[in-house]
Amino acid sequence: MTTIIKEGGKTIVKTGERVDTLNATQFEREMEAALEKGVDLELDCTDLQYISSSGLRVIQETMRIVTRKLNGQIKVTHVSPSIFKIFHMTGFTRIITIEK
């Protein structure tokens, strides 16, 4: 389950434990709702244990909207070593700010 928190000038999106094919559509809707609250996003992955290519696609599309259309910023925080490895292997570490 995703939680959206408005904090100062940014919106924090806390992921659930999994973002995969089964819930990627819901995650995409939640990310769209987060964009309505502000254009500076922090994706807090404290609880994230698994992410599939479907979840990566949602993050990539959200990044494009935030940075190109809305002229905002997005970063991914509190990433576990195993999730960081997935972001690194897929090239996300070169296109988005990711903090362990």
What does this entry look like structurally?
This protein has 100 residues and is α/β, with parallel strands linked by helices. The protein has one domain: STAS domain (Transcription Regulator spoIIAA, 2-Layer Sandwich), CATH 3.30.750. It has three helices and seven strands; from the N terminus they run E-E-E-H-E-E-H-E-H-E. The chain has a five-stranded mixed β-sheet, with helices on one face. A hairpin with a 2-residue loop joins strand 1 (3-7) and strand 2. The longest helix is centred in the middle third of the chain and has 17 residues, at 53-69.
Question: Which features characterize this protein?
Answer:
Transcription Regulator spoIIAA, single chain, two-stranded parallel ribbon, alpha/beta, 100 residues, five-stranded mixed beta sheet
- The CATH class is Alpha Beta
Beta-strand residue percentage: 25-35%
Largest sheet: 5 strands, mixed
CATH architecture: 2-Layer Sandwich
Q: Give the fraction of residues assigned to helices.
A: 40-55%
Quick rundown:
The chain is α/β, with parallel strands linked by helices and about 100 residues long. Helix content is about 40%, strand content about 25%. The longest helix is centred in the middle third of the chain and has 17 residues, at about 55-70.
